[in-house]
Design brief:
6-stranded mixed sheet; 3-stranded antiparallel sheet; 9 strands; binds 1-O-pyrophosphono-5-O-phosphono-alpha-D-ribofuranose
């Protein structure tokens, strides 16, 4: 697995610093809130970041999971998102949600999910991503908490996969081009 990695883009040490910074920001921002805070992990890629982040946040949080798939070609801006696994709870009126993502690419997934959760009646919805590729955006979207902006490279590890591999690497690495070009 390691020999498929060209170079490390975000090291374990940097990831640790990023997670601590975001957890402290979240604690600060929700200090005076009397609502429940729900960390909503979008499967599967976000599961590693979610696990680290939830341990670093000091205030009480609840957790939940959704799984979505987005369709449409890379050049389409009308990409549809379909929900494969929905939130368990129905009443979101007393819940502040932070959606936790591993990466933002086109922005379609998070912009859809924000709308969806607001329509479902969430008290508030914010977004948090470990990695952000602003150069790939197809819809106007920016997250509230961003770990690191990265260039448009093929990244794997820390939850991110190529063909379901590499998710368990503890760092974010750039895949060697020969692995994904045929
Ligand atoms: C990735 C990532 C986001 C989405 C971002 O998930 O975890 O959910 O793509 O892309 P967008 O900004 O273009 O919408 P993916 O579909 O690879 O699923 P996975 O997390 O299960 O690997």
């Amino acid at each position: 697995m390691l020999h498929d990695i060209d170079y490390i883009l975000v090291s374990e040490k940097e990831i640790e610093l990023i997670v601590s910074r975001i957890a402290a920001d979240i604690d600060r921002d929700y200090k005076d809130s009397d609502k429940k805070l729900l960390l909503l992990c979008i499967l599967k890629g976000s599961v590693v970041f979610m696990g680290d982040l939830m341990k670093k946040i000091r205030r009480p949080v609840e957790i939940d999971f959704m799984k979505v798939s987005s369709y449409g070609s890379g050049t389409s801006t009308s990409g549809r998102v379909s929900i494969m696994l929905d939130l368990y709870r129905n009443d979101l009126s007393d819940v502040d949600i932070i959606i936790v993502e591993d990466i933002i690419d086109s922005g379609k997934t998070l912009s859809y999910l924000c709308e969806y959760l607001k329509l479902k009646g969430a008290n508030s919805v914010r977004t948090c991503t470990m990695l952000d590729k602003p150069s790939r955006r197809q819809v106007d979207f920016s997250a509230d908490y961003v770990g690191r902006e990265i260039p448009d490279a093929f990244v794997v590890g820390y939850g991110l996969d190529y063909d379901e591999k590499y998710r368990t690497l503890p760092f974010v690495g750039v895949l060697k081009p020969e692995i994904y070009t045929h």
